[in-house]
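RECORD TYPE: inverse folding
INPUT: structure tokens
STRUCTURE:
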């Protein structure tokens, strides 16, 4: 095969997915997902593709299913399950803050899967007609990214008000991803028409989801910032005992040693301070500029981790009425940790 033809096939098969992912990152006005995270997700999606290839071969060898029913009913289950595993790790670890992040993370994992799959086909069947490469690049590859994004967004939305996502939050999105993938593999419509539908529908859905997510984020920022600022003012005012927080702590302090009660108050204050810092970062991004990293944040995060060990799970549960524990609220601490790690790495590289 001529170099020109090979390059054309590679561009048709790989470039559309990469461009769509870049477009998702560009229209994210808060820029909550870093390039480093995207590259890791793409690599993880590639690993998921390799595992799927092996799993598909094993299932085919065991069941002797013909290619068509296998592609329609079995391959979607295997492939979407492996893609989902990558994203479940992020969801369970509260590493995804908002729907827009879920869409980007999901599409990145799916893009990595599609890139690995198309590289494999480029190796074994690079001489396929250009039309088939366009279908694989603009249709199949975008479908892989899109259904992974749908899984991640659905699971995130179902678990948004919880402190951690569980199995019941994962299954509906996984079922939906498998269903769409299976329908696509049924080839009810012609490959070109299916590709056209994917190209028209997915960007429209992505834009709608981004607008919805940004409105929810703005509301959370405005309400949360005011609530956190009010709570911090009460803690720092010296009048904690007469506040609702103080009265509540008075009712539960008999369960803890006096030193732990002090740590509970310190943990509450520090957690609220860091939450305000995180919301300040997001509000600054909304206005178009990036806040410089405060060196004190790293020390505060370390102190928070030490206090968390000191008060234990019982202490955190006691503070739950005053500490917002939705996955958005837990994510903001993770975001600050990421910023601190990135800043330290940047300083080390300059040295």
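DESIGNED SEQUENCE:
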């Amino acid at each position: 095969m001529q170099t020109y033809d090979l390059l054309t096939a590679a561009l048709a098969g790989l470039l559309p997915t990469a461009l769509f992912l870049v477009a998702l990152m560009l229209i994210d006005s808060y820029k909550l997902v870093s390039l480093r995270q995207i590259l890791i997700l793409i690599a993880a999606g590639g690993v998921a593709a390799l595992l799927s290839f092996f799993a598909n071969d094993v299932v085919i060898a065991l069941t002797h299913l013909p290619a068509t029913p296998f592609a329609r009913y079995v391959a979607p289950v295997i492939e979407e399950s492996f893609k989902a595993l990558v994203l479940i790790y992020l969801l369970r670890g509260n590493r995804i803050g908002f729907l827009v992040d879920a869409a980007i993370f999901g599409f990145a994992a799916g893009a990595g899967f599609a890139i690995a799959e198309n590289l494999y086909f480029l190796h074994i069947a690079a001489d396929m007609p250009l039309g088939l490469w366009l279908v694989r690049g603009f249709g199949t590859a975008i479908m892989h990214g899109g259904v992974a994004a749908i899984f991640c967004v659905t699971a995130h939305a179902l678990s948004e008000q919880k402190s951690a996502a569980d199995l019941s939050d994962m299954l509906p999105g996984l079922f939906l991803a498998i269903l769409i993938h299976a329908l696509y593999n049924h080839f009810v419509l012609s490959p070109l028409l299916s590709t056209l539908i994917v190209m028209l529908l997915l960007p429209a859905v992505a834009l709608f989801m981004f607008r919805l997510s940004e409105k929810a984020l703005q509301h959370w920022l405005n309400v949360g910032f005011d609530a956190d600022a009010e709570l911090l003012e009460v803690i720092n005012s010296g009048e904690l005992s007469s506040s609702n927080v103080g009265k509540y702590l008075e009712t539960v302090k008999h369960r803890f040693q006096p030193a732990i009660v002090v740590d509970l108050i310190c943990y509450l204050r520090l957690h609220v301070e860091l939450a305000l810092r995180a919301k300040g970062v997001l509000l600054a991004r909304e206005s178009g500029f990036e806040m410089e990293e405060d060196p004190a944040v790293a020390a505060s995060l370390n102190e928070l981790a030490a206090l968390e060990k000191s008060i234990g799970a019982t202490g955190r549960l006691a503070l739950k009425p005053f500490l917002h524990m939705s996955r958005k609220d837990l994510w903001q601490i993770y975001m600050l940790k990421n910023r601190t790690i990135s800043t330290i790495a940047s300083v080390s590289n300059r040295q």
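NOTES: The mean pLDDT is 82.
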